[in-house]
Each structure stands twice: as structure tokens, then as C-alpha cells.
Amino acid sequence: MIKMNTHYAELKDSYLFYNISQKIKAYLDKNPGKPLYRMGIGDVSLPLCDTVIKALHEAVEDQSKKETFHGYMPECGAPFLREIIAKHYASRGVMLDVDEVFVSSGASDELGDILDLFDRSSTALVIEPAYPAYVDANVMAGRKILHLASGEENGFLPRPDEDTKADLIYICSPNNPTGAVFSRSQLQEWVDFANENGSVILFDAAYEAFIEDENLPHSIFELEGAKTCAIEICSLSKTAGFTGTRLGYTVIPKALNRDGMNLNSMWVRNRTTKTNGVSYILQKGGAAVFTPEGQKQIRQNIQVYKNNAKVLMEALDSLGIWYCGGKNAPYIWLKCPNGMGSWEFFDYLLNEIQVVGTPGEGFGACGKGYFRFSTFGSPEDTKEAARRLCELLK
What we know:
Aspartate Aminotransferase, domain 2; globular; 7-stranded mixed β-sheet; alpha/beta; about 15% strand; 2 domains
């Protein structure tokens, strides 16, 4: 009889967004026509910028002509896209070989696939609160998971625990859900820790484009020693609105070796075995993001979301509510007022002012008593949500 991967039975029910949708449905059934102000969604609301749309249309036209048609693309990414991404890193002082850049169908896919490189006996360290997929992907693989708690006392930016030894270390900065960002010195501690212990950092940089403080690192490879201990996974979803278009990239330095094996070479073999590459059309659109005009236009869109963050932060400041994130990230992580629980606060906002956020405990035990607002909504809805929040809690 066939044996199944029984580790799937160890997964906890993914109740967070299901419960949210069920609560919203029940509310709307009782209150038809009531407007909702959705500050919980992690999806973008602005369309792709004009430069990207133009490139996508041009790529479609290329596919209609024999002389410009493209079939299978290189599994690790088209040279034109890998080159322009490497130049983008160089503009920030990070020098990469083109073949250290791998084009992917998005950060979520890559965060799961990258685990192929590591034996199931390896341990994974997850800093909580955390993006739930970090935990679930390792549960599916039957891997031991270590949880490192963070909280207000350290701004949700914990230091390495010298007593905790892990093979894989997940770091997301700017963080989802907390919006907290590691400083250079804080991140350097983790790089040094990984090198000293032979660990590999899986650095999720999906939100780096929201960093406005020039003293904060956008890439882990800005830190000394990172090329011998880190893999960086990035996405165009939040950077350029590619949530429905699906494109990202992963950086694996050639200097990264473990157990006598080279991780860059391993990933080349993995991609050439398991994928047929990302479509020419999407990669042409992705390349347009890194042109001067593309960068200008995506910054304009990001500024809309950052203005939303300012509106929400001003409201929380006026109410005296503790929070982190917002300035350098598209998420605001706040402490529920009056000792409320996360779900209690969710229900209170939904029923009293029709504002929807995300209960913090859905991101792990450290999220109990906290709440996440997203800044990806429309400016109009954000302003109204902030007004209602102030009126309710003043």
C-alpha cells in the first residue's frame, strides 16, 4: 500500500483568514449594503504601472511573430532580467554575478521550494510573530522547528539566542506582520551568528522597497559576511504590484557552501530539473520595473501606500496606542487597546465601525493581544477608517 506524507496531518488548521471571511460574511448577511473598510488585506490595490503594461504588451506582440517568438525560457531566468536585477543591486553597492540571480514565480513559491536544498534532519528557526508559511512548509517536510519569541521589549526584533542552534534561520525585514526592520548592526549580529554556527539565513526581502530610512539595509548582502551564510528571496508583488502577475527573484551567492556542497550549483540543478522557467512575457514586464521610468512609477505607487501609513499612524498617535512598523513597511502592528484580545478587537472594529484588520494571534502565540493593519487600501477608505477609529477609541 502506498505511504503518504503523514506530516500533512500535523498541520494546524489555517483558520485565520477563513475565520475572518466567515465573520465578514455573517456581518454582511445581517447588515446588507453596509460599507466595509478593509485594512487587513495584504494585497495591493493599485494597478501595474504604465511602463510595465507597455512592456507586457510589447512582449505579447513579440510572441505573435516568428522572428521574435520565444518558446521555453532559461530555467534560471532570462539573461536580460538577471542582468538588470544584478545592476539594481550594484546601484546599492552590492556586487553580484549575473548567475547568482535566479528568476522565480514569486517569493511564496521560492520560500517553499528552497527547502529542497536541505536535509529533513536540519532544524529551522522561526522568529515569531511570523508569516505562517514559514512554519507550515517545514512541518510538511517533517523538519524540527524552533520558535524564537519577540515582543515590545525588543521592538519585535530579537537578537540571536546563543543557546539556540538552528540550521536554517528565517528573517523577514521589513517584517510581515510587525513592520519592524532590522538595523545594520542588528542584522550583522544574525549574519555573524549564522557564520559562527554554520547556519543558513533565508532572508525574505519582499517588502524592501518600502524602506525610506537610508540607514536601514535593503538587502542582507549589504552586511559583511552575508555571502557565506545567506540566501535572499525577493518579490515584485508588493514592490511593483505583481501579486496577480507572479514574479520574483532569489539570490544565492557562489560563496555559499555547506557540508561540502555549493548551494548555487545545487539550485541550478534544482531549477533545471523541476521547472521550465518563467514566461518570456512576465520577464519582459519584470525587466521594465528596473528601468529608470519603471522605478519612478513604482515609487509613485508605493508613496500612495506610505501616505496611507501616515494617516493610520497619526490616528494611533493621537489615541496613544503603541505600534511599530508603518514608516519603512506596509504593515502597522499595534497593541490592542484596553487589554482586548486580538479577536475581541477584530469583532469590536467590525461591528462598531466596519473596519477590518487582522488579529495578531493568527501569526503565532506572540501575536496575542496585537493587531495588524495593512496600508494597501485606497486613500479614501484609509482616511475614513482612521476617522472612525479615532471617534470610537478617543
